[in-house]
């Protein structure tokens, strides 16, 4: 099973990815984790990324794509994977298509977890109250900015994958168990 999870910040992608990892026995690939692992392993791309991160700059698509490609070649990804946080843009999606073609594999589905922005903000504010604001992103202004970035950069992927017949949409406002059931039903089709 080769999946991409799409959805705005706070929609539950990470929660659902962990559940799907258990259900299907495939790894969750988060670009942040992959980047940190490549830096720690001191791979050539990891060292290049480290120099960029150390300067405080954003890592280019070329490097991110290369690191994702290397990770997809790992043995644990042979039976499948769940991409979470990649691709974020149409350019990255096109690069992923090329990568997968070169590897002779195809995506099974792209799952969009739809969520209402105002409800996500309400959830974050509630979580901050309950946890004492322990997380840096438990802040309305930060979340609204991240939601804006998602809308501008990542939301266009919905139409991109819909045009390829890969998009499955589930209601992320349901309880976790119902969202999981909806995802599993959607990818079983």
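Sequence proposed for the structure above (189 residues):
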């Amino acid at each position: 099973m080769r999946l991409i999870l799409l959805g705005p910040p706070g929609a539950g992608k990470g929660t659902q990815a962990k559940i799907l990892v258990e259900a299907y026995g495939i790894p969750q690939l988060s670009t942040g984790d992959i980047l940190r692992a490549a830096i720690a392993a001191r791979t050539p791309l990891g060292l290049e990324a480290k120099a960029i991160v150390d300067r405080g700059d954003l890592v280019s698509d070329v490097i991110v794509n290369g690191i994702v490609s290397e990770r997809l070649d790992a043995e644990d990804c042979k039976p499948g994977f769940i991409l979470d946080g990649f691709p974020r843009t149409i350019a990255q999606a096109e690069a992923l298509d090329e990568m997968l073609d070169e590897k002779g594999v195809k995506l099974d589905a792209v799952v969009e977890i739809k969520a209402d922005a105002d409800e996500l903000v309400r959830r974050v504010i509630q979580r901050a109250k309950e946890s004492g604001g322990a997380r840096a992103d438990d802040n309305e202004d930060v979340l609204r900015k991240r939601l804006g970035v998602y809308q501008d950069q990542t939301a266009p992927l919905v139409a991109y994958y819909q045009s390829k017949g890969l998009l499955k949409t589930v209601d992320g406002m349901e309880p976790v168990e119902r969202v999981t059931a909806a995802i599993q039903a959607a990818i079983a089709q």
